[in-house]
Write a structure and sequence with these properties.
Blueprint lengths: L1 H20 L4 H12 L11 H20 L3 H34 L7 H12 L6 H10 L5 H26 L7 H32 L5 H21 L3 H12 L5 H26 L8 H28 L4 H10 L5 H12 L8 H35 L1
């Protein structure tokens, strides 16, 4: 057990640093580390119950941190435009991903296992990771522009909608599941989260004012994350990561929310996060991948990126953004990251996806993270050149 942890952490950190050097996401490096030390190549580590449980803690901490980073005020200010763009950015990839899977592996009829698997593949494509885009916009000095803020706000709302879709689709895995009951449970959970969350927030606000920057604050936050995860899964049939995300949102408006997030990040960065991402590589055996999966993966990457541009870009155009602005918004929403991996891992755990399809998700994350900043910079360079030419004339 200790030997496994040592091997995982040293390989994870080495490849994460290597990924950072070549301007790729660190999580991609950690996944590659899992592929290297897993059954695909060296076969030094095999998945087991201990690593699975550690990875589960890792994903809960990741989603709790994501909730803590959510700016409620910004969400309120973003208004209808960002919400509509985010909705289109969820619906179009969901439909396109579902059709893509059925084109390769068949339909099977409404409500069939194959259809639900197809729907889940579409769900993976709904996620947006805007961190790479934000960095590119910041480097160009474009983050504070209307387009930059629209991309950032829409991405936050996109994640919320994506988690809701994930919860609904996973609930359909149960053959006895009724869509109406599934929706009702989700609504009841969110009513519960809002009601209990308000009470907890007021209590935590008082505690935070009386004992600011003390270790008890993040400890209580961690208890809330695990507690909400348990309640969501046990009593409402909602994905536990949804509970963790809601716990983060509840505490996101505290004065010490950044302090809590930093403390969570220590645990996540040091041990639980790397174990989660490495475990994804460990669950993928490249030696057993069907050649058709490679073809599917390439189509999956293409559809995943184009569907975001179409969905978000067209909605932006409908909302009276210019053609250039709409294209920038669509391209800015293309990147995928941790949320796509979390969704994939949940599908594997629920039996809605085979481990070999992790290859598709990994490729999407790496390619979209590299391509998006390049295209975005090119679009802004063209716009700047046009503006300079017009000013000169």
């Amino acid at each position: 057990m200790l030997e496994e942890l040592a091997i995982i952490l040293i390989f994870a950190k080495f490849f994460a640093l290597l990924a950072r050097k070549i301007k790729a996401p660190e999580v991609a490096g950690e996944i590659v580390a899992g592929l290297l030390i897993g059954p695909s190549l060296l076969n030094l580590i095999q998945t087991n119950d201990f690593l699975t449980d550690m990875a589960e803690i890792g994903v809960i901490l990741l989603m709790f941190s994501a909730g803590l980073e959510t700016d409620i005020g910004q969400l309120k200010r973003s208004g209808a435009k960002a919400t509509l763009i985010a909705t289109a950015g969820v619906v179009v990839p969901l439909i396109c991903g579902t059709i893509l899977y059925m084109a390769f592996y068949g339909f099977g009829g409404w409500g069939s296992e194959n259809f639900i698997r197809a729907l889940f593949i579409g769900t993976i494509l709904t996620a947006t990771s805007v961190s790479i885009t934000v960095q590119a916009l910041r480097d160009m000095g474009k983050l504070s522009t209307e387009v930059g803020m629209t991309i950032m706000n829409a991405a936050v709302i996109d994640d919320v909608l994506g988690i809701i879709v994930l919860t609904a689709v996973i609930s359909l895995k149960d053959p006895k599941a009724n869509l109406g009951i599934v929706v009702l449970k989700m609504v009841l959970f969110f009513v519960f989260a809002i009601g209990v969350g308000y009470i907890i927030y007021q209590i935590m606000k008082w505690v935070d004012a009386r004992y600011p920057h003390t270790r008890r604050i993040p400890i209580i936050g961690l208890v809330l994350a695990f507690g909400m995860s348990y309640v969501a899964d046990r009593f409402f049939g909602v994905a536990d990561i949804t509970g963790a995300y809601c716990a983060g949102i509840i505490l996101s408006s505290l004065d010490d929310s950044a302090y809590i997030e930093r403390k969570m990040d220590i645990n996540s960065y040091m041990i639980f996060g790397p174990i989660f991402f490495v475990s994804i590589g460990l669950q993928t055996n490249l030696k057993q991948i069907d050649p058709s999966v490679i073809v599917f993966s390439l189509a999956f990457v293409a559809v995943g990126m184009i569907a975001k541009v179409i969905g978000c870009g067209l909605m932006s155009r409908i909302l009276k953004y210019s053609k250039d602005e709409s294209l920038k918004i669509g391209v800015g929403m293309m990147t995928r990251g941790e949320v796509a991996l979390i969704v994939s891992q949940r599908g594997l755990k629920a039996g809605m996806m085979d481990s070999q399809f992790f290859t598709s998700v990994i490729l999407l994350i790496i390619i979209s993270s590299i391509v998006t900043p390049i295209i975005l910079k090119s679009l802004y360079m063209k716009t700047d050149a046009k503006e300079k030419a017009q000013a000169a004339s």
